Amino acid sequence: MEAKPVIASFDIATSTGICWGRIGQKVPDLITWNMREAGPWRPARLLLFWQKLEDFFIEQAEIARIDQVWYEAPMAIAVANKIGANEETIALLRGMIGVLELCAMRAGITDIKSFSVQDARHHLTGQRRHGRTKSGKSEGKAEVMRVAHMLGVEVANDNEGDAFAGWSYACGLANPRLAHLVTPLFAGT
Hints:
The protein is an alpha/beta fold. The protein has a single domain, classed as 2-Layer Sandwich (Nucleotidyltransferase, domain 5). About 45% of the residues lie in helices and about 15% in strands. The chain contains six helices and five strands, in the order βββαβααβααα. A hairpin with a 6-residue loop joins strand 2 and strand 3. Helix 4 (about 115-125) crosses helix 6 and helix 5 packs across helix 6 (about 160-175). The longest helix has 22 residues, at about 40-65. The two termini are about 30 Å apart.
């Protein structure tokens, strides 16, 4: 019997959340990488991301090779500008996507896709949009973390939460017979 594919999902940000595991795995692995460790210079942060990805893909190849890489699609530039993102941040995040795609290809992973965070959150929580708190913070991130904890997945932060939502969504697309298992009715909670 052939092993189920391993999917890795990335929430690309200055603090990048990563979630990976086999399709159908109850509790996937999670980690957060902080690009601030490299200092404020964008090229140094991109280099750190590249180094971490190279090490990650080599490590995983020794355990269970990753078959698919998914990442949260970047926000449209017009929307990013509207909410106050500066040019440096936009360049960093878009550059990190290029580095991810390059490193995945170098590791022999050719199945690389992006997902809409709204689609992933809808899959996991049942809602596409969640609104904002009075201070402007997204309630969607908190809801994703709540559902993850309900499912027994201990996400450490909202970056890991969105990476988990992306992983669960990608698993549901890869095997639609498992997609409903994240709902409270079937999650065994």
